[in-house]
From TrEMBL:
One of its GO terms (cellular component) is plasma membrane. The chain crosses the membrane at residues 22-50, 57-77, 97-119, 139-161, 193-215, 236-258, 270-291. Its main location: membrane. This is Olfactory receptor. InterPro entries: GPCR_Rhodpsn (IPR000276), GPCR_Rhodpsn_7TM (IPR017452), Olfact_rcpt (IPR000725). Keywords: Cell membrane, G-protein coupled receptor, Membrane, Olfaction, Receptor, Sensory transduction, Transducer, Transmembrane, Transmembrane helix.
Length: 310
């Protein structure tokens, strides 16, 4: 009877904010970061859309990264803020499933998209003559579509399984959103097989792309060392280092949460790392790309001048 009631009524999200002034301060800080992430990613997406100089495969992929980050943070933070403001920690079973599906879809798709961006830079720097052929618009669209489809398939499988697990313990999830690893601790059945599938899918969608990105950056750095033009060398190094920073900020905390066994990490430690890749990374990505990219800064100036002239 208890199992059925808990399955029907949903879960309780313990949240991120302690009931004190510190909690209120953290809440205000998170809201500011959320608004900055929304503004930054929306601005980046619109900037690439409006400026013809940025209509290249590299910036088309970057616009999709901004779109993913925009949806990524919007899937989690509004519900978290609503729960804190109204003092309601509950989330229905259906809401939990929808939130988990979109989160896992965007997480998997972003990992593959970051690998596609690294491949684009690898071709542009190491094979500049073959770049227009190998990285055509069709190939670019296929990469983006493939990232979304793979992310969706992976997410659908995990979400359906997680929603069919019998939950017979406390239904309090020690997170501020429906995170599958945290939900598994509430199950009244042995979930080692499912935990293994989580490990495999994280390895395929996050760890392997990260290794591929690191290898491509190594090849790029080797190619940079043989460049005669100082300006080309600086531009290539800036592009590669920028992408590596973004990938590291995203992949490392995510891999630690989903690849590390539960017994080796504490719930509070996991909660802090989740904040890093869900809330901080979407805010940092547009800042990093704008500040370290002269073409984006130039496009920003052109768009601002165009708006002012109107």
């Amino acid at each position: 009877m208890e199992n059925n009631n808990q399955t029907l009524t949903g879960f309780l999200l313990l949240g991120l904010f302690p009931p004190s002034r510190i909690g209120l301060f953290i809440f205000i800080l998170i809201v500011i970061i959320f608004l900055m992430a929304l503004f930054g990613n929306l601005s980046m997406f619109l900037l690439i859309l409006l400026d013809v100089h940025l209509h290249t495969p590299m910036y088309f992929l970057l616009s999709q990264l901004s779109l993913m980050d925009l949806n990524y943070i919007s899937t989690i933070v509004p519900k978290m803020a609503s729960n804190y403001l109204f003092g309601n920690k509950s989330i229905s079973f259906i809401e939990c499933g929808v939130q988990s599906f979109f989160f896992l879809t965007l997480a998997g798709a972003e990992g593959l998209l970051l690998a596609s961006m690294a491949y684009d830079r690898y071709l542009a720097i190491c094979f500049p003559l073959h770049y227009p052929i190998r990285m055509s618009k069709k190939v670019c669209v296929l990469m983006i579509t493939g990232s979304w489809i793979m992310g969706s398939i992976n997410s659908c499988a995990h979400t359906v399984y997680a929603l069919h697990i019998p939950y017979c313990r406390s239904r309090s999830i020690n997170r501020f959103f429906c995170d599958v690893p945290a939900m598994l601790t509430l199950a009244c059945m042995d979930t080692w097989v499912y935990e293994y599938t989580v490990f495999v899918s994280t390895t395929l969608l996050i760890a392997f792309p990260f290794i591929g990105i690191a290898c491509s950056c190594g090849r790029v750095l080797h190619a940079i060392c043989h460049m005669h033009s100082t300006e080309r060398r600086k531009k290539a190094y800036s592009t590669c280092s920028t992408h590596l920073i973004v990938v590291t900020f995203y992949s490392e905390p995510f891999a630690y949460i989903y690849l590390c066994p539960r017994r080796l990490r504490s719930p509070s430690e996991a909660k802090i790392l989740v904040v890093f890749y869900i809330i901080l990374t979407p805010m940092l990505n547009p800042i990093i790309y704008i500040l370290r990219n002269k073409e984006v800064m130039g496009a920003l100036r052109r768009v601002i001048q165009r708006i002012c002239s109107i």
